[in-house]
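U., I forgot to send this yesterday:
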Amino acid sequence: MSIGTQNESSLHKTLKFQYTGPGGKTENLVGDYVADGITRKGEYIEVQTGSFAPLKEKVKEFAKKGKVRIIHPIAVSKYIEVYDTEGKLLHRRKSPSRGSLWDLFDALLYAPLIPLIKNVKIEAALIDITEKRIKDGKGSWRRKGISIYDKELSGWHECILFENPKDYLYFIPFKKGQEFTVSCLAKAENIKAWDARKVLYVLTKMKVVKRVGKKGKAWVYTVSS
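Result:
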């Protein structure tokens, strides 16, 4: 078993090899950190399914040596398969939860400055996954003792690459000079106010948008120059 692969899911492994590509190397020790992959052209690949917070120092080190691409998979749809301890499929269902590109801001929330690091780009991969569970009595009480033991890639939708801070204006439907609030963004994009608040928090930290005052108790924003 290679360094850093002990608890690696099939999903992580598939994306790691896909983005590293032919001629690349996986699980490379680079200084004090292990890179998921390094492509034939020398680009560092990091697959991160959760928050980007653990990547902050690691990515800085890689970016000093070359280009870095963070792959963030977002499950647009998820199927759940439950097996018994002998490996027999008991049932399969589609989860009601659905992901979207807006989920990228959950990952960026505690690491909003990563997109500002020179040589770093972020790619959101909108995919379908199959989550495999086993009825072993060892899982969470919320799942009635059923354990999650793997996640697999089961379909692709699209990949969207963010190479520089201005690319994040993709999420702002307002023109330069227009003023807007959290509720304006939520209404315009048909998302929850909490999600709109996360977006504007991150983009303010990135200096893509800025606060210009208040309207009642709500902060007013505009696109930065």
